[in-house]
Amino acid sequence: MPRREVLQELNLWPVWRLRVASPLPSDVAGEVTLSPDMPVNRRESILSMEWDELRQAVSGCTDCRLHETRSQAVFGIGDEQADWMLVGEGPGAEEDKQGEPFVGQAGKLLDNMLAAISLKRGRNVYIANTVKCRPPANRNPEPDEVAACEPYLTRQIALVRPKLIIALGKVAAQRLLETDQTIASLRGKLHQAEGIPLIVTYHPAYLLRSLPDKAKAWEDLCFAVRTMQGLQSTAQIAS
Ligand code: URA
After folding, report:
1. CB-count exposure of residue 151 (10 Å: 0-12, 13-18, 19+)
2. 91 lines ligand 1 (CB under 6 A)
3. Rounded to the nearest whole angstrom, what is the distance from the C-alpha of residue 238 to the centroid of ligand 1?
4. Is the predicted pLDDT of residue 96 greater than 90, yes or no?
């Protein structure tokens, strides 16, 4: 889809109305680790798995109550060596049915957001969720469910080793940054999770309900693009 139409779809056209004023990539807000509520040896074993084993472990996982109501676990999708990694909250009804993240309405918006910055699902982009099984009635995952899934996402991040992570929404941002701060206070800064630069933006499902915040999401995407450019040129200088 041409860029102008994509921006219109996002209610972001004309772009000149938007003021993009974000800090430079050097503003790193700190590094975090998570202390999961799970036996150490189970976690350690997940953290040493390669892709196939990890996929199998997720698909057969019964570590929290979400497995009782899922149709299938939703692992993650995309380029396993991507520079970009996007992390959402958890599968919804459509994702639970199809086994792929972000294939419902929110997913369509996410694809348009990616297109607006010349990215495409699967091409240099990996998409995963904080929890791999659908919370019933699309409720937010409970803290113990997020903790049970923590090693899976941690291992996905370690295997992909993206240059930049974008946390989509509160659940992903709070889990990855191990914080209870709001999206509003986390946006516009460069954080770090698992040693990888991370930017926070709104969840696409929220943006479907809140048109004014689409402009802020566009600012976040511009910030992400600038950050990635900085990271890529730093990597070039280093090599
Ligand atoms: N919302 C998410 O956070 N993830 C999905 O995969 C779908 C909707």
Report:
1. buried
2. yes
3. 36
4. yes
Give me ligand 1 centre to Cα 16, in Å. 30
Contact yes or no for 77/65 (Cβ under 8 A): no
Give residue 17's pLDDT band: very low, low, confident or very high (50, 70, 90): very low
Mean pLDDT, residues 188-216: 96
23 C-alpha to center of ligand 1: Å?
28
Domain containing residue 57:
3-238
Find the CATH number of the domain harbouring 214. Answer: 3.40.470.10
Cα separation, 224 vs 93, whole angstroms: 29
The domain total for the chain is 1
Which has the minimum average pLDDT: 24-38, 84-98, 157-171, 192-206?
A: 24-38
Out of 86, 102, 156, give the residue to mutate to test ligand 1, the one with the largest number of ligand atoms within 8 Å of its CB: 102
